[in-house]
Amino acid sequence: MPRALRLLLAGIALAALARAADLDLPPAGAFTIVVIPDTQGYRGRATKATPQSTEPLTNPVFQNHTRWIAENLRAQNIVFVSHVGDIVDINNAEQWTLARECLDRLHGVVPYSLTVGNHDMTSKGDASLYQRFFPAERFRAFAWYGGSYGHDRSEQNVSANNVNSHQLFSAGGLDFIHLSLECNAPDDVLAWADGLLRQHAGRRAIVTTHMDLGPIERPKDNEGYIKDPKGRMNWVKIHGARGNSAVQMWEKLFRRHANLGFIFSGDQSRTTAMRLAARGDAGNTVHSLLSDYTSSGPLRVYRFVPSANEVRVITYDTTRRALVDSTTHVEARDQHQFTLPYAMKP
């Protein structure tokens, strides 16, 4: 087959994939990072959503997310996938088993990271079940896996063994370091992260942590989660007095690194979608982006376009196979579909 015909057929195939996904093709040189919001939508027996059910445990939205990512790796040039945490709803072996089945579709196919949310461990930070199903050993064979935080204390179920991890990848001629930091990461974890960001100061940095944006102060009632003032959160759920709020994590770590460009988070479904641009100490803009779509169909597609020095943020529902224009708590389309400036080329 002539080379020109092969290229034509390949282009047609890619275009067909993009149309099937209801997304246009990325421009030349662009690449995509996908962020999976909280995946607490478990159904079936012994779940919060359907406690009286006798049906088998399922999570169709989680399955749809990883299926869509696998189907669109080439068409959308997906180079990295990050989960913002609350991987499970109830911290039990049954839900972790299903979560791993969902993520097995990505394992060995694309670099990915998992962030430990408050539903993924106990309030004291015990992440034993997460560590059983997603230990550091599961990822060590991959060249992109940079390693995880460790300590020599007796409680190895807290913070260690892939509860906090980092990944190294390159795309579009740019080198990145990504850190997954557990919910309300304590000072020892932040010191580890600080060292990594200094060591890799020549790489562009992205952080995923579970709690960042949402109600600034802890709401006193359910209505407060919707109506209270929102911004970087100043309260914690995990680790008690050792836990750092989002405000503390910003002050102690994030603002100090010139290479940090993005902070991804989830946790707050009644905030749903929010973004905040803040200035780091070196004058760099850090984009904080919350996406928690009530564990329903949407996920986030971050399309990096170096030629335009911008990131196109696309919220896409992998169940309906459609773009998201509005949600119950965030009606404006421009909170779900928007573009951010991000210098990548001179």
Brief digest:
The protein has 346 residues and is α/β, with parallel strands linked by helices. It has a single domain, classed as Purple Acid Phosphatase, chain A, domain 2, CATH 3.60.21.
Description of the structure:
The longest helix is centred in the first third of the chain and has 18 residues. The chain starts with a helix and ends in a 5-residue tail after the last strand. With 346 residues, the protein is an alpha/beta fold. Helix content is 21%, strand content 26%. The chain is globular, with a radius of gyration of 20 Å. It has one domain: Purple Acid Phosphatase, chain A, domain 2 (4-Layer Sandwich), CATH 3.60.21.
End-to-end span in angstroms? 40 Å
The sequence of SSEs as H and E is HEHEHEHEEEHEEHEHEEEEEEE
DSSP strand (E) fraction? 25-35%
CATH class: Alpha Beta
Number of separate domains: 1
**H/I helix tally:** 7
**Overall pLDDT:** 94
Instruction: Describe the oligomeric state of these chains in a short phrase.
Output: single chain
Architecture (CATH level 2) name: 4-Layer Sandwich
Going by CATH, the homologous superfamily would be Metallo-dependent phosphatases
CATH topology: Purple Acid Phosphatase, chain A, domain 2
Specify the helix fraction band.
Answer: 10-25%
